[in-house]
Amino acid sequence: MDKRLTDALEFANYSHTLFNQKKLAHQKFIDSCVHYHNAGKFTITQQLITFCELNKKSIILLDDNNIPVHIDNVSKFLKIIKEKYNNAISAYHTEYQKITSSKTVAGIINV
Amino acid sequence: MSKGILVFAFNNEQIDYIKQAIDLANRAKRYLGLPTTLITDIDIVNDAFDSIIKFSGNTYMTQKTYRNGTDSVKLNFKNCARISAYELTPYDETIILDSDFIICNNDFLKCFEQDKTLLMYHNSFDLTGSREITNEFKWISDTGPKFYWATCVYFKKSKFAKIFFELLEHIYENYSYYRVLYQLETRVYRNDFAFSIAAHILNDFVSADSIGEFPGTKYYVTDRDTLLELDNDKILFLSEKNTVVRTSQLNVHCMNKFSLDKIL
Domain map of chain B by residue range? Predict the structure, then answer.
């Protein structure tokens, strides 16, 4: 096979694997950010954290299914979601760095 | 409230579903701390299971194409016992799992932290990322309702769940009618379709929210992809397009039974 074509196909394979593993890492991060409280489902976002920071008293939050959920101890709730979010984004960051710093398919999948 | 996993395993000429179920039970114990009950049609004793129930009901057999990458073969397939899950389960809260599910984390425990009495996956994630996005796993037919996966179902003993499973029995018994009504292409009874039709009916034929979304994401590879390595919670797959994908700490539905059988 023409070397130019071989190189191109090899790069395409690397590019696809890189893209796919990045997409997977991001989905895993989103999954890790889900927190259940009082039977409500919350995807933890920076916006949710900031909102809770600003409302330290008892509040009602709209969960992912648009159900209003009462949060009686906001400080405790905030502490849990912050910790969960920090762990998730830290793991995502580590994985992302490992994936993107690998220059071969073998390097990427050995993450 | 008792909680546990329910797995159905009916071996055929080539696929050892019970071997898969044993691995699933061991993983359920390790990652979820949950017991597993096996439903099967043969006499078996195995410590991996909390209990084993010999299914004496109708084990209607059909033929299904099993793929292993580029190869394929038609084999017998017994898949109608699942509609009896409500009566068979020894648990108050049950997670039904296909035996070809590879548990690698504790995400399924989130089922017990919410209020809905029935959860199923609608959304799913093709791990290989190399196939065109189709409607195959979005809708049950071109004009049909939402597709729900029967491979992974949570239910709590309740009036609603009982109605759901009784409705499934009705759909199963009248499948030829529902197949035409919902314009399903395949004549073979398929649990995913029956569960999706039941969900559609119980949602009053619209997109209501009686059925909750199962926690996390349903990651899958099809039977055209191959499982290459399985090392605790790390899995390596080869896609049909010859690209590789590595997962870590993700629950994966591996539809290629042959490659799973080989690795276990």
Answer: 3-221
